[in-house]
TrEMBL record:
Lineage per the UniProt record: Bacteria, Bacillati, Bacillota, Bacilli, Bacillales
Organism for this UniProt entry: Bacillus atrophaeus (strain 1942)
Record-annotated membrane-spanning stretches: 6-24
Alphabetically ordered keywords of this record: Coiled coil, Membrane, Transmembrane, Transmembrane helix
Keyword Heme carried by entry: no
Superkingdom of this protein's organism: Bacteria
Gene3D superfamilies: Protein of unknown function DUF881
Coiled-coil regions listed: 43-84
Protein's name according to its UniProt entry: DUF881 domain-containing protein
């Protein structure tokens, strides 16, 4: 009887031990499953957040490209306007110098016209002296060749200056000047001198009219504004 009870008790203890072990393993598996589930949820949440961030980044990048494009367009517009504005100012300054509203200085050339030193007997004296037409020819050639300012014997000229010959004297805008006539021009001498000396050009024509002509480079020519001259 005692032996049978011992067997029963042992069997019961074995079953209880098995149940405890199974319960422990089940609890452990459940905890592991729950941990994996929580980990997966966290990973899913992070992935979802990452996708949202990538989408937001794409939208921001697109917006950035659009703004950069607008900035480039604005810069190009401002650059164009600046260039146009600079060109206008440059033209205005050239016109102001051309009409004599501002003083100007710089390198250039000096052309001297003198009456013929010898007049053959019986010849007409007027054929051997400097006339306004000769001065006009020189003045026009200098302006055409790029001179920014021209003067005669120190008197500033403009595009509409009045020049008239009265015997050996030339009147410029009401001011009389005797020969020799020193015509100064501010500009690039390496352009102005060749323009005057071109074969068959102005100096050759003046020489054929018995006018003595010299053209020299000058490093420093100064001319005051016409308004100051008038004062």
């Amino acid at each position: 009887m005692k032996g049978k009870s011992a067997v029963i008790i042992s069997l019961v203890m074995l079953i209880v031990g098995f149940l405890i072990s199974f319960s422990y393993q089940l609890t452990k598996d459940n905890k592991s499953t729950n941990a994996e589930s929580e980990e997966w949820k966290k990973e899913y949440a992070l992935r979802d957040e990452l996708l949202k961030q990538e989408k937001q980044n794409k939208e921001l990048k697109k917006e950035l490209y659009e703004k950069q494009s607008k900035v480039r367009q604005t810069e190009n517009k401002l650059k164009k306007e600046k260039t146009e504005y600079y060109n206008v100012l440059e033209d205005v300054e050239k016109y102001r110098m051309y009409v004599g509203e501002v003083g100007v200085k710089g390198e250039g050339v000096q052309v001297t016209l003198e009456d013929a030193s010898y007049i053959p007997e019986g010849e007409n004296v007027n054929s051997y002296i400097v006339h306004e037409s000769h001065i006009f020819q020189v003045m026009n050639e200098l302006f055409i060749s790029g001179a920014s300012a021209v003067s005669i014997n120190g008197q500033r000229l403009t595009h509409d200056s009045y020049i008239k010959c009265n015997g050996p004297v030339v009147t410029v805008d009401g001011v009389q000047h005797p020969a020799p006539f020193v015509i100064s021009a501010i500009g690039d001498p390496d352009v102005l001198i060749p323009a005057l000396n071109i074969a068959g050009g102005l100096i050759d024509q003046l020489s054929m009219d018995h006018i003595s002509v010299t053209a020299e480079k000058e490093k420093d020519i100064q001319m005051e504004a016409l308004l100051k001259n008038k004062e």
